[in-house]
Amino acid sequence: MPEAGRRRHEGLEILTWYFGILGGLLTVLFLGTVWYWMKYSRLERGAMRKAGDFKVVGYGFLMLASWFLCGIVGPPGSAARPNIMKAESIVTSSYVVMLFLFLGFLFIFLGQRVTYRAKAASAR
Fold it and tell me: Which residue(s) pair with 9 in the sheet?
């Protein structure tokens, strides 16, 4: 019988507490980022405010991608456990994850671009 917080899979030990703790910390960091954005974005004006909005939307998509990754490697997909794997769930979730990753990085890129264009315009 495996110890609490540990699962064995074909000789490999899966530390469920590791993923639980780091997943929780990712959520706390994301919520902290959104809280700071909500609190301080009103101090920004024009392009800088728009850039911050783009970035937060991007971070939201990255958070959604990480959430769906949990569904690929854990239930219902369980890619790490072929004996209970549901291929349809893994394939569908993989498409969703790639879309969210793309959108996340796109919005962060747009936010960075708007930021640097605004800084360059103010330096002239």
Answer: 12
Tell me the C-alpha distance between 78 and 30, whole Å: 25
Distances 13 to 31, 34, 55, 108 between C-alpha atoms, Å:
31, 35, 37, 36
Q: Indicate the pTM of the whole model.
A: 0.80
Q: How many domains does the chain have?
A: 1
3-12 residue pLDDT tens: 665 655 555 6
Range of the domain at 102: 6-123
Cα torsion at 61, 62, 64, 69 (round to 10°)? 140
Mean pLDDT value across the chain: 86
